[in-house]
Amino acid sequence: MADNANSLTVSIVTPDGQVYENKTPMLIVRTINGELGILPNHIPVIASLAIDEVRIKQLESDQEDDEIAVNGGFVEFSNNTATIVADSAERQNDIDVARAENARKRAESRIQAAQQKHDDAELSRAQVALRRAMNRLNVARR
Ligand code: ATP
Fold first, then answer.
1. From which residue to which does any coiled coil extend (predicted)?
2. Does residue 51 line the site of ligand 1, with CB under 6 A?
3. Residues spanned by the domain of 13
4. Which residue, among 123, 113, 29, has the nearest Cα to 71 in the 3D structure?
């Protein structure tokens, strides 16, 4: 049985609802300041997340980690529960690869056009769109 000594609860929520909830012996996220591993009973923490994967170890060590593509947001850890709040998040198996591939191509075209027009605001938006698409592709293809 999982208890507080060897597991923590992880919950991932978006405006569309809860995407994930499980017990884990370790959660690994990428914050805007670098990678953060959270073990059971970690000190309380709150951190902004990069557009990157969240990796959730399984209680049974022979099982594959769960991987979720998370679109920024933040992680808050207290009372042995990690809550991730993000604009969007997709579990590995829920990622539509063709859609992400199209989004990647669109973002690359936008980046090229913005560079030619020296449109810095559009360039930043397109670069973020590219990061979202690449993150989904990386998680889906693992
Ligand atoms: P697209 O241009 O394909 O819509 P996007 O990066 O603009 O991509 P978001 O605004 O981040 O999309 O997400 C909108 C909604 O669509 C969210 O609920 C998100 O989880 C979902 N979503 C986006 N891309 C994918 C994908 N490739 N596979 C599954 N769900 C996706």
1. 97-124
2. no
3. 4-92
4. 29
